[in-house]
Amino acid sequence: MNLKTLACSQVNVNDELPQMNVPITTTMVIAGALASRDFTPVHHDKRVAQAQGIPDVFMNILTTNGLVGKYVTDWAGPNAVIKKVSIKLGGPNVPGDTMKVTGKVIEKDAATGLVSIAVTGNNSWGNHVTGTVCVALPKEA
After folding, report:
1. Are residues 127 and 90 in contact, defined by beta-carbon separation less than 8 angstroms?
2. Is residue 49 part of a domain?
3. pLDDT number for residue 64
4. What pLDDT score does 140 carry?
5. What's this model's pTM, rounded to 2 decimal places?
6. What pLDDT shows up at residue 3?
């Protein structure tokens, strides 16, 4: 986690963010669903998930969205402000797997301090999440 906020002037297009590994546990999946008030059974009942063809409970999109936001703000620092998140889910995040989150700066507007990052979260099923995050950074350090 970056304890000092990056300035837009310190960021360049094509900069790669450090990888974040997220071990997926049953507790994480269930707690994330309950914390986001998602009571859909596939997120907390293994038998229901298996009836849908998935081997175990699987992470909901709100938990994934939170992890994507954490990934970007851990890199950018505590005063960075997320302006927009656009994600798409792919394969599920199930307990026992690890999601490897990577990112790359794809746009930078020095005049506004807005930086866009392409983010991918990959696991043994392939891409769990792909998308972009736009974050506002201070213009100068």
Report:
1. yes
2. yes
3. 98
4. 81
5. 0.94
6. 84
Q: Are 130 and 90 in contact (CB under 8 A)?
A: yes
Question: Closest by alpha carbon to 121, among 95, 96, 87?
Answer: 87
Rg (CA), the chain: 16
Q: Rounded to 5 degrees, what are φ and ψ at 13? A: -60, 140
124: domain CATH number is: 3.10.129.10
The Cα–Cα gap between 45 and 58 comes to 9
Note down the domain range covering 55.
8-136
Residue 67 pLDDT class (50, 70, 90 cuts):
very high
Give, in order, the Cα–Cα distances in Å from 56 to each of 34, 37, 92, 100, 114.
16, 20, 10, 19, 39
Query: Per the domain annotation, does 19 fall within a domain?
Result: yes
